[in-house]
Amino acid sequence: MAAVQSDVEHDMTLLASTGVEDKLQRNVRETHERLRHTVIRVWMLTGDKVETATCIAIASRLAERSQGIFRVAGLKSRNEASRALSRFRRESGSDVLVIDGSSLQILLDMFPEEFIELAATAPSAVSCQCSPTQKATVVELLQKQLGKRAVAIGDGGNVVGMIQQAHAGIGIPGTEGMQASLAADFSVTSFCHLTRLLLWHGRSFYRRSARLAQFVIHRVLIISIIQTVYCALFFYAAVSVYSGWILVGYATVFTMFPVFSLILAEDVSGWERKGDRMTGLSGPFCKPITNV
């Protein structure tokens, strides 16, 4: 191939050069800022080069201007990986971690637990030149090592393994296809919809599910204790104090309204309206109130 290339490509005149601009979606900066102000740690796993990924992290406000960037690149041996971890432990305070794919693979092979623990202390992390297998491995280690809930977000076919490995996968339909959206648990049309999906719907659903579970347990305990006391009074005979229709009605009709009240309850008004902009999942989001 080199011989053919040198034989063909000579005495040629450059006519033009082209470039493809990779634009960020709308409201990406605001979304990262809101997620960063919560307890959510954001990791960006990308296949871009280190310089490109660093520029994207700064442009999308994944790294603030006041924060430093700690780069780990070009590791080739166990000793270099150990020195890089020691330097990161000493020097990193609020720095954003940026690591390339080859160095990430060495750290995952040599010091997986130590690397994950140290990287979790950073406000955010950027992993460059990652393969789909590495993305899924990082998500798996974050879940096992830290014991936290992991949400994987992507818009291409190379993130399907990562989305399926995480506790919750969120797919975004993009120009690369619908693979991520079809393989994910949730699908949104834009990255900025994560704010409302995580901070409002996620919180509300978790709160409602917890209260509903407690209600179901208490509902069963009430009828079970009455039945137990009734049987004890009659020398533990297998006699039912309720008929079949009463049990069915108690589990459905009689206790139906508290269930609906728990599901539809809202303790705070999730989002404010700003001008004529919509606050639903189909439009840009407004500023959340402070206690969300």
Automatic annotation (TrEMBL):
Its main location: membrane. Residues 182-268 form the P-type ATPase C-terminal domain. The keyword Magnesium applies. Keywords: ATP-binding, Lipid transport, Magnesium, Membrane, Metal-binding, Nucleotide-binding, Translocase, Transmembrane, Transmembrane helix, Transport. It is an enzyme of class 7 (translocase). The chain crosses the membrane at residues 216-239, 245-265. The keyword NADP does not apply. Its cofactor is Mg(2+). It is a multi-pass membrane protein. This is P-type phospholipid transporter. It is found in: Endomembrane system. Its EC number is 7.6.2.1. Belongs to the cation transport ATPase (P-type) (TC 3.A.3) family. Type IV subfamily. GO terms for molecular function: ATP binding; ATP hydrolysis activity; ATPase-coupled intramembrane lipid transporter activity; metal ion binding. It comes from the Eukaryota. It comes from Gracilariopsis chorda. It catalyses: ATP + H2O + phospholipidSide 1 = ADP + phosphate + phospholipidSide 2. GO terms for biological process: endocytosis; phospholipid translocation; retrograde vesicle-mediated transport, Golgi to endoplasmic reticulum. GO terms for cellular component: endosome; plasma membrane; trans-Golgi network.
